[in-house]
């Protein structure tokens, strides 16, 4: 199946590691995302350390799957580089590219939201020792999938309008 249509959130993983070459491909894809005025304000923190995974899980109730994953990527943006208010959009485009590249390379992944939950953002910033200008955006949890649910068909023609709303 086309990997664009095959992407789904995966929250169960095998013990298999993410190969370094695949990780680099995924990060290259992340950096290929568009950014407003080409500021490329994104940074990516690769987290393999199990103690860090435990600390993340204690902060982020909806990211418990990190405990069984080989790796997570924290997507952050530099507020001092971003153009206007576009940091979240820039980081979102990178996050989506990570999910798609992971799918293309045969990995399962899930986007765990951080922005715009202030409490979560503050706790993650503290855990990762982020400087003031570096804003956490999302955490992507990644690994070989242990979930064989088929991706859902999300095609809804009624969501499409032409020219104007009515
Ligand atoms: C902004 C955003 C935040 C999300 N946060 C979480 C999260 O914290 N934990 C989680 O398990 N899934 C999270 N998801 C994944 C959604 O739950 C998932 O994409 C949605 O249920 C649709 O399922 P699918 O990805 O399999 O198509 C998030 C997705 C987005 C776009």
Distinctive features:
NADH Oxidase, four-stranded antiparallel β-sheet, binds flavin mononucleotide, alpha+beta
Report on this structure:
This protein has 166 residues and is an alpha+beta fold. The chain has helices spanning 3-6, 20-31, 50-59, 87-104, 118-127, and strands at 42-47, 71-78, 108-113, 134-143. The protein has a single domain, classed as NADH Oxidase (3-Layer(aba) Sandwich). Helix content is 33%, strand content 18%. It has a four-stranded antiparallel sheet, sandwiched between helices. The N and C termini lie far apart (34 Å). Flavin mononucleotide is lined by residues 8-9, 11, 62-63, 110-113. Flavin mononucleotide binds next to β3.
What would a concise description of this structure say?
With 166 residues, the chain is an alpha+beta fold. The protein is 33% helix and 18% strand. It is built from five helices and four strands, in the order ααβαβαβαβ.
Strand order of the largest sheet: 1-2-4-3
- Beginning-to-end CA distance, first to last residue: 34 Å
What is the CATH T-level topology? NADH Oxidase
Instruction: Please tell me the total number of domains.
Output: 1
Task: Work out the oligomeric state of the chains in this entry.
Answer: single chain
CATH homologous superfamily (4th level) name: NADH Oxidase
| Poorly predicted runs | none
What is the second-level CATH architecture? 3-Layer(aba) Sandwich
- Beta-strand content bin: 15-25%
Mean pLDDT across all residues, rounded?
97
Summarize the amount of helix as a percent range. 25-40%
């Amino acid at each position: 199946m086309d990997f664009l249509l095959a992407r789904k959130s995966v929250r169960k993983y095998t013990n298999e590691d993410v190969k370094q070459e695949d990780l680099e491909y995924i990060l290259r894809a992340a950096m290929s995302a568009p950014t407003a005025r080409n500021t490329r304000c994104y940074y990516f923190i690769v987290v393999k350390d199990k103690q860090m995974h435990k600390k993340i899980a204690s902060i982020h109730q909806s990211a418990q799957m990190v405990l069984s994953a080989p790796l997570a990527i924290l997507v952050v943006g530099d507020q001092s580089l971003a153009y206007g208010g576009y940091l979240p959009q820039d980081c979102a485009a990178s996050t989506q590219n990570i999910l798609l590249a992971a799918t293309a390379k045969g990995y399962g992944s899930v986007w765990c939201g951080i922005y715009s939950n202030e409490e979560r953002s503050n706790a993650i910033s503290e855990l990762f020792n982020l400087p003031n200008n570096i804003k956490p955006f999302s955490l992507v949890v990644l690994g070989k999938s242990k979930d064989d649910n088929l991706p859902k068909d999300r095609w809804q023609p009624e969501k499409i309008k032409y020219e104007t709303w009515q």
